[in-house]
Amino acid sequence: QLVACTKVVAPTFRHPACQEQLIEAAKLVAKSVEGIVQSSQEVCRDDNLVQDLGAAATAVTKALNDLLLHIKKAAQPTNANEQHEEAVDTIINVTDRLFSSVGDAQEMVKQAKQLAQATSTLVGAIWGEANMAKEHSDSDTERRLVAAAKQLAEATSKLVEAAKGCASNPNDSNQQQMLRSAAEELRTAANSAASNAVKKRVMAKLESSASQAAAAATQLISASNQAYKTNSNPTSNQQMATAAEGLDQQIPDLVQALRAVQRSQDSATAQLALINASQDFIQPASRLIGACNAAAPTVSDEASALNLHNAAKSLSNAIAELRSTASKAQEACTSLEIDSAMDHLRDLEQDLRDIQDAASSGRLTRLPGETAETSSSQLGTTSKTVGSSMAQLLTAAAQGNEDYVGIAARDTVNALKILVSSVRGVASTTEDRQVRQAIIDQAREVISQSHHLLEEAKAAMDDPANPENQARLTQVARSVSNALNNCVNCLPGQRDIDQAIRTITQTSQNLSSPRFPPSDRPYQDVQNDMNNASANLNQAASDIVTSSRTTTQALAESSTRYSQNYEEFVHTGLTMAGLSKDLETQNQIVGGLKSVSMVSSKLLVAAKSVSADPNAPNSRNLLAQAARAVTESINHLFSICTQSAPGQKECDNALRQIQMISS
């Protein structure tokens, strides 16, 4: 009666009435057992038999108690996460069956119906959670759950429509493909809607599968070593030994990833490492399985051959399970790349705090081979790499492409690791405490803004339809770019070049409304000063190009000298213009000074670029071109000054008149 009742009520096991029937049937069995024991004790005089009967009766009673506990557990309210896990697990299994049924329209429609039912259960559970969040005034959670439920409901509607089309046209391959696509979309929506519950479940399965695969691999390696001694085929023996060695090197990585996950269950970095280690484990394990199966027929010792065969079969089953669970884990944990990247950023933030503490206490020392030049150069180069990676991250996030977002996030973190290492190098090789403190502070700001950018990218992935995504991403990316520029500007030498640029900019602004310095000196003396100032400025431009091939500090010093020579050049030029009483001549000289100012700014900007990244392609060529432009502008202004000398116009007019008369 108990068995019959169980078979009947099993599909509706959680219903109270069904549970009551099962409990009553179990009580009848218990009562019958008690009756048997009591009757036997009355008629049997063999104590051993009575004792054996009592032990058997105890076993039955224990089994009945276990059944009753299971029923009571089922009567308790189901946890929301458990509902999510069960529903999504059903969805994943059913979609797998649907994908493998392509070509059989009837079977595909059947699986689609089961898929719709499982989705309906999941949607109901999500709506229940949303209502609970509403009761607790958690508007953010409620909004997120409602959006997930709606997305899942829309995907279900598409699936139903596709299933109807496939049922009405069973021989149409396009209809079958549409149903498959709808199922894929529904599966993605389900993973997104119950991501946390699914992650925990698939990661737990992956841990179990990885552990079994590692154990099976160890057994097969041991069996292959034993079979090696009695294998009569040298070729297969060598292949088996090589494959065993390759797999043996892979086991520690998998075990280490397993231990990391067990230590930190919620660590995205550890979870991602386990997924990657599991996938890396599959190929060498498959290679050893193939080599062992090939070698087994030529192993003369029957026990070794049998052991090899069984171990290979065991590992084959474990690898099949590992491949399946790793694939499901990768599919369910699509945001792990971003989560892992944010974990790494938190580690980098701690590294910078440690660097700052060491610098403050005087314990920060340079590493072997670390110089100010190499660290500064590496920092400038890496800042461009970070900028490029973040541009890719923005593009991928705007397109809603999770795979590319993950790749860009990983590339960004790798570049930031090098950036932090470069910051440490700069801080340890400079004697200027102000520079040291400033560059560490700005590096921390870069990490902080980068973390904010990854958070926004993840939010955009979770809610791709939000129209504010692009604006928020762009704003945060601008903050990261500013932080990077500020960090590079803290490099030794960069501040000197920035000061030189500011000096030239301020002087150029004064040329907008020029004031001519009064002078009672002869024009010839002022012109000689102009000649000297022009020569000095031209030489300073050449020195900038020359020093760019030496050190960044030399480049900074030559840039400072250039700004000083430029101030002298402009002062002399304005004095010369003031000596001329012709307004047109004054305007021509001021215009020439403005031209020199513009090319001087370009020269120092090019010098700053070379200082930040000496190995940047074409940067030195641009610097040389800027220096040539300075020389050309100086020569042009010098010609204007020569033509504006007192009596020069009169001489020119007299020459023209003589030429007219002679002609």
From TrEMBL:
InterPro entries: Alpha-catenin/vinculin-like_sf, I/LWEQ_dom_sf, Talin1/2_VBS2, Talin_IBS2B, Talin_R4. Residues 359-384 are annotated as: Disordered. One of its GO terms (molecular function) is actin filament binding. Residues 333-494 form the Talin IBS2B domain. GO terms for biological process: actin cytoskeleton organization; cell-cell adhesion. The keyword Cytoplasm applies. It comes from the Eukaryota. Keywords: Coiled coil, Cytoplasm. Residues 84-198 form the Talin-1/2 VBS2 domain. GO terms for cellular component: cytoplasm; focal adhesion; plasma membrane. Its main location: cytoplasm. It is found in: Cytoplasm. Residues 205-329 form the Talin R4 domain. Residues 372-384 have a biased composition (Polar residues). Residues 312-358 form a coiled coil. This is Uncharacterized protein.
